[in-house]
């Protein structure tokens, strides 16, 4: 509700399945309907995340899931898997499709193919620079939106396609369960001196060898707009107000 009350024109949220924030608050059908009604009453759209990489068993549950969400009044689904895109378009063809940053779109050829599949908007990979955003804008249909993140975490891997969490903790980042081991504090060990831990000096907070600095693009908003960005996205799920 804070995002709605503080001036955004759309919010994105997750339900009980298919969302990339397994630890965040989830909207069941009743609370989703209530949330959509609250947002719409204030002129704010609601986009539902369906951007995990689903297994065979999981994807079979998608049609019923998306029909229920559509009946609750969502304005778009945020999707990364091309099978999910096709299945959603067959199930509820009227529902707008936004391609998630998890799809890793970095060029206009991919964006155009997704447009042909029915995507209305593409959320570009966080790695795309302003010059290439403009090239994408110049080479895709005018009615296809471009959305970019302007604030939030940066993954040490490529737009969240990381297996480190699954390897170290058994929690799969591609299922929305990332334990963020890249943010942990590490020490250097020399193999002939087991038990001796050497600090990698960097600052008062120690050294975080895998932890990328969080994104903050507030000083570049005009450049992004001039490059053709339609929508600015602020990371908010699993964060405090």
UniProtKB/TrEMBL annotation:
<keyword id="KW-0645">Protease</keyword>
<dbReference type="InterPro" id="IPR051454">
    <property type="entry name" value="RNA/ubiquinone_mod_enzymes"/>
</dbReference>
<protein>
    <submittedName>
        <fullName>Peptidase, U32 family</fullName>
    </submittedName>
</protein>
<comment type="similarity">
    <text>Belongs to the peptidase U32 family.</text>
</comment>
<dbReference type="InterPro" id="IPR001539">
    <property type="entry name" value="Peptidase_U32"/>
</dbReference>
<keyword id="KW-0378">Hydrolase</keyword>
<dbReference type="Pfam" id="PF01136">
    <property type="entry name" value="Peptidase_U32"/>
</dbReference>
<dbReference type="GO" id="GO:0006508">
    <property type="term" value="P:proteolysis"/>
</dbReference>
<dbReference type="GO" id="GO:0008233">
    <property type="term" value="F:peptidase activity"/>
</dbReference>
């Amino acid at each position: 509700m804070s995002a709605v009350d503080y001036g955004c024109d759309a919010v994105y949220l997750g339900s009980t399945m298919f969302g990339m924030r397994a630890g965040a608050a989830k909207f069941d059908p009743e609370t989703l309907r209530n949330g959509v009604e609250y947002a719409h009453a204030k002129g704010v759209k609601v986009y539902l995340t369906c951007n995990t990489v689903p297994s065979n068993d999981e994807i079979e549950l998608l049609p019923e899931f998306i029909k229920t969400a559509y009946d609750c009044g969502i304005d778009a689904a945020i999707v990364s898997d091309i099978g999910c895109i096709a299945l959603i378009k067959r199930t509820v063809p009227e529902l707008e499709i936004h391609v998630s940053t998890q799809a890793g779109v970095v060029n206009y050829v991919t964006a155009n193919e997704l447009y042909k599949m029915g995507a209305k908007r593409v959320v570009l990979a966080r790695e795309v620079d302003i010059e290439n955003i403009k090239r994408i804008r110049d080479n895709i249909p005018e009615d296809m939106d471009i959305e970019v993140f302007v604030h939030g975490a940066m993954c040490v891997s490529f737009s969240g396609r990381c297996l480190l969490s699954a390897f170290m903790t058994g929690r799969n980042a591609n299922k929305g369960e990332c334990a963020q081991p890249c943010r942990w504090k590490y020490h250097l060990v020399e193999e002939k001196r087991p038990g001796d831990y050497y600090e990698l000096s960097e600052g008062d907070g120690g050294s975080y060898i895998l932890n990328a600095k969080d994104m903050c693009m507030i000083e570049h908003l005009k450049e992004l707009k001039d490059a053709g960005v339609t929508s600015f996205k602020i990371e908010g799920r699993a964060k405090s107000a």
